[in-house]
């Protein structure tokens, strides 16, 4: 997954030379401070004395932060114990540079065996004790990390979605480092999106579909019991692969059988020297969106056999579809085992959790996620989600917001109007 920086240029701070420190303070700090312009009461610049006072205040602040770092690393177990001649000693990642901003940043050296992910995982535990609402942790070289103390959650505030999307790319959201999470849609894996009601699942899906609808090499397919997701696609080339509502469970099955038959045909006709289909306008990627998955299965289960067949067909699309240009997107309130089986879950390597009602739900899709992150996620704002993807650290991000359902409808209609097959150009031909 690519991340493009959208943040403002960082401020350069004035550096100060080392100073002596008592031995138990560990290695000397390089204190760098932004120009703070502190004035004495009355507002008169006292020149030399002001600078002395500034410096004394900075040093006190740096000391306090240095201790806070040490104590919170111990508390968060971001430390290691070493035996010395005088007994066991706790060692924490060394602070090699401090900038007393704002923004305040620490440059730390990781302990042997530590990874940047270890610091990120501890961030929730460290932040309050460093006087911050959140930490932004960025790697610097191989064994250093820059830690920025943030006054507010970096994910507050909506993220607008720019349309049309860059060709072949899809924006999933913006991460805590203000970087866009973008991906070549051809590299998308099967996806599962969970979250309680009104946590932002549909808005996220609207964003995806609005970006992808215009591309000739994609067909937006699927089943939507709510009847809202596919409404703007009426009359377009996508609509023949979509079923909406809960009136006709047989229609779900017919669509899935058609998709499976096409998948089988594509696999059989793969050229001898290829193991995956090349997606083109003639053989487009079938993005199979299964909205409100629990409701979808409930509807299918009105007839036991239909329910069974629907599950079997979805299982086949998940198991064999990727090489034939099929991507499945399962949207569900909770990815629990009696709704999304362990096998189906395992097939979805792109996993997204909007607000969940407990930590265990986070664990379902993101095994090994820090417990406190899962707990904090039970109060996440709509649109804020956790993402796991192959080769990626667990990432907290904010999904883009198009601006409500009306904006989604307009975006899809506009995207499909540009379509030579179904748009005005096609009608005139
Ligand atoms: N990414 C977002 N940014 C801002 N607001 C959002 C975002 N996602 C959701 N919301 C708000 O939350 C409401 C519910 O979102 P929705 O996607 O319908 O939830 P769900 O499908 O999970 O029930 C939306 O109407 C919108 O007001
Ligand atoms: Mg919804």
Topology:
Elements: E1 2-5, E2 14-15, E3 31-33, H1 48-75, E4 80-84, E5 87-91, E6 94-100, E7 104-109, H2 116-126, E8 134-140, E9 144-150, E10 159-160, E11 169-175, E12 179-184, E13 191-194, H3 201-212, E14 218-224, E15 242-244, H4 249-268, E16 285-290, H5 293-300, H6 304-320, E17 326-332, H7 342-347, E18 350-353, H8 359-365, H9 371-376, E19 384-388, E20 395-398, E21 400-401, H10 404-417, H11 424-428
This protein binds adenosine-5'-diphosphate and magnesium ion.
The site of adenosine-5'-diphosphate has 14 residues, from helix 3.
Please tag this protein with its features.
2 domains; binds magnesium ion; binds adenosine-5'-diphosphate; 21 strands; alpha/beta; Rossmann fold; eleven-stranded mixed β-sheet; disordered C terminus; 429 residues
Explain briefly what this protein structure is.
The chain is an alpha/beta fold and 429 residues long.
Description of the structure:
By secondary structure, this protein is of the alpha/beta class. It has 2 domains: 13-150, no CATH class; 159-428, 3-Layer(aba) Sandwich (Rossmann fold). 31% of the residues lie in helices and 24% in strands. The strands form 4 sheets. It has an 11-stranded mixed sheet. Residues 158, 195, 197-203, 354, 382-383, 399, 401 line the site of adenosine-5'-diphosphate (ADP).
């Amino acid at each position: 997954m690519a991340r493009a920086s959208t943040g403002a240029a960082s401020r350069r701070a004035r550096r100060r030379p080392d100073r002596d420190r008592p031995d138990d303070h560990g290695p000397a700090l390089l204190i760098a401070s932004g120009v703070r312009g502190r004035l004495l009461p009355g507002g008169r610049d006292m020149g030399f004395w002001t600078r002395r006072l500034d410096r004394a205040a900075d040093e006190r602040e740096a000391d306090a932060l240095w201790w806070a770092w040490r104590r919170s690393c111990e508390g968060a177990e971001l430390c290691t114990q070493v035996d010395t001649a005088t007994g066991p000693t706790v060692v924490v990642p060394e602070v090699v540079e401090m900038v007393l901003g704002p923004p305040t940043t620490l440059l730390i050296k990781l302990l042997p065996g530590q990874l940047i992910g270890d610091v990120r995982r501890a961030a929730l535990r460290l932040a309050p004790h460093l006087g911050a609402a959140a930490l932004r942790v960025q790697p610097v070289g191989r064994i250093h990390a820059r830690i920025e103390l943030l006054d507010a959650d970096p994910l507050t505030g909506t993220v607008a979605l720019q349309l049309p999307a860059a060709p072949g790319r899809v924006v999933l959201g913006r991460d805590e480092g203000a970087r866009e999470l973008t991906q070549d849609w051809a590299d998308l894996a099967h996806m599962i999106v969970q979250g309680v009601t009104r946590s932002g699942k549909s808005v996220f899906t609207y964003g995806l579909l609005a970006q992808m609808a215009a591309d000739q090499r994609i067909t937006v397919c699927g089943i939507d019991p709510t009847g809202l997701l596919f409404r703007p696609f009426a009359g377009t080339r996508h609509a023949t692969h979509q079923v909406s509502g809960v009136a006709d469970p047989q229609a779900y099955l017919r669509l899935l059988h058609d998709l499976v038959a096409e998948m089988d045909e594509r696999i059989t006709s793969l050229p001898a020297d290829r193991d995956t289909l090349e997606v083109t306008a003639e053989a487009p990627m079938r993005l199979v969106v299964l909205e409100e998955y629990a409701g979808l299965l409930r509807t299918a289960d009105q007839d036991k056999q239909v329910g069974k067949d629907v599950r079997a067909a979805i299982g086949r699309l998940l198991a064999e579809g990727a090489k034939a240009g099929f991507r499945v997107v399962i949207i569900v309130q909770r990815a629990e085992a009696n709704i999304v089986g362990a096998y189906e879950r395992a097939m979805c390597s792109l996993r997204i959790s909007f607000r969940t009602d407990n930590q265990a739900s986070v664990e379902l899709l993101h095994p090994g996620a820090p417990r406190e992150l899962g707990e904090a996620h039970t109060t996440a704002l709509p649109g804020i989600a956790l993402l796991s993807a192959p080769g990626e650290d667990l990432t907290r991000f904010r999904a883009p917001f198009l601006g409500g359902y009306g904006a989604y409808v307009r975006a899809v209609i506009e995207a499909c109007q540009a379509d030579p097959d179904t748009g005005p150009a096609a009608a005139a031909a």
